[in-house]
Amino acid sequence: MWGGTPSRNMVSREAGAPRKWDIKTGLNIKWWAALGSRSRGEPVVADGVVYVGTNNEGQRDRRRTEDAGVLMAFDADTGRFLCSG
To answer: Of 8, 15, 46, 58, whose CA is between 20 and 30 Å from 65?
Structure first.
């Protein structure tokens, strides 16, 4: 939940959060994943899985040949692609 609570206060109480990151060098980046060309909403993390709503332009889901909306799932620790549907 953005803001951490229903009050939506965007000030994080986390300590030691990185203030800088760099995708090219990997500085403070745990992992990244290729998604479709469009994503809606924010990632959701639950029970060690990251869920991302996107489209199937990259066709990770071979059962779908059309460019359709899909929900992709990734392992939160490693970023390994688990499935889409």
So the answer is: 46
- Whole-prediction pTM: 0.75
End-to-end CA distance of the chain: 23
Taking the C-alpha atoms of residue 41 and residue 76, their distance in angstroms, rounded to an integer, is: 18
pLDDT the model gives residue 28: 94
Domains contained in the chain, number: 1
The reply to whether 52 falls in a domain is: yes
Cα separation of 25 and 28, whole Å? 9
Q: What is the pLDDT of residue 25?
A: 94
How many Cβ atoms are within 10 Å of 61's Cβ, its own excluded?
15
Buried (b) or exposed (e) across 29-38, using 16+ Cβ within 10 A? eeeeeebbee
What residues does 75 pair with on adjacent strands?
A: 49
- Which pLDDT tens digit goes with each residue over 25-74? 999 999 999 888 888 788 999 999 999 998 888 777 677 778 788 889 99
